[in-house]
Amino acid sequence: MNHTPRIRTVVSSTLLVVTLVAGATACGEPEGHPLSLKPHDAADLVSFNGPSKDEKADPDKPLEVTVKDDDARITDVTAVDTDGRHLAGELDADGKRWHSTTSLAAGTRYTVKITTENGDGAPGSRTYAFGTASAKKFLKVTFGPQTGTYGVGQPLTAELSAPVTGKAARATVERGLQVRSAPAVTGSWHWVDAKTLHYRPKEYWPADASIEVRSNLKGIKVTNALHGSAAKPLKITTGDRIEAITDASDHSMTVLRNGDVINTLPVTTGKPGFETRNGVKVVLAKEQFVRMRGESIGIAAGSSESYDLPVYWATRVTWSGEYVHAAPWSTGSQGNANVSHGCTGMSTADAQWFFETVREGDIVKVVGSDGETMTPFDNGFGDWNLAWDAWLKGSALHGDGTPDTGTDVLTARLRPQV
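Request: output the structure for the sequence above.
Response:
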């Protein structure tokens, strides 16, 4: 009896199964092509302009892959360096050419994988590996502050070893300086000057957050003369959200922890001519004892405003000498008059409590003063006095990448003002 092959098809929602019943053979497609095309080595189909085995690639020379067979096409190209960074590239619509669109990283190795199809539609692949020449000049990055636990107002800083100008170069730097936090926040870098960047969230950091900043600039071309170098990453954490709000017109300070009031203290702030700065400041340091002299802020010795005082429990909030500190000589005015030379004064017991309650990065905000507003960068961390839109303008990725102030943050640090 002559048995004719019968094909039984079983269809499900996810799988098509074709079963050949007795006597059937896998005879192939009607045109005679095999059902499964064997993968091939694509070396005969493509040209690659990478260096020879014993040479290193010029980081400034783009990579290019082209087909040698008019019937073949490139389907994909991936180029990854030893740090896991993918090189950006572009494949022509007809699949005949691929080229890199960014510079290679210097001083590293790349693995390039090319996949193709020949004229019969059979897949092919080829992998190349090569090194890149080292850079001659490096851009180093140092992150701040030091590892530790800080208040929720603490900005991150990045100090560069050389100035970087121009929006494109600054955008390259920003893309390479990666900040991650848990919980996650919306934040941005801001160019303070050509060698300094600050990073802050839109709002204060969350309490009890973990924050990490690292550089991904190693080998990356920043300018024609500079490539990024490796940088030590930084991890910090935040503690409770501590905010000290001083109302100069009411002569009082309200201290909150995570939104709850934990103390209200009578204080005195700057008198006329020496008004305390309004706005948000951040605790910079704590000094249990400091000697404060009028000459340090330009008061002539022997004048009616001159002073030379031992001061205890001093919490610094500006580099020009503004502190929250013990002022036992003014206890009669604390809570009802402003008599200081710009500092916030309180009783010794209250100053010690404040000193022991706050940490670097905590928020100290002044309202109701006739003084000027705290400057953003040249006198400590006044970063929070910039509105978010203004902050973003100082980013090369979100704005024009130029600082709102021309003031160099390396302004000389002045002495206490009492």
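Helices lie at 167-176, 348-357, 388-393.
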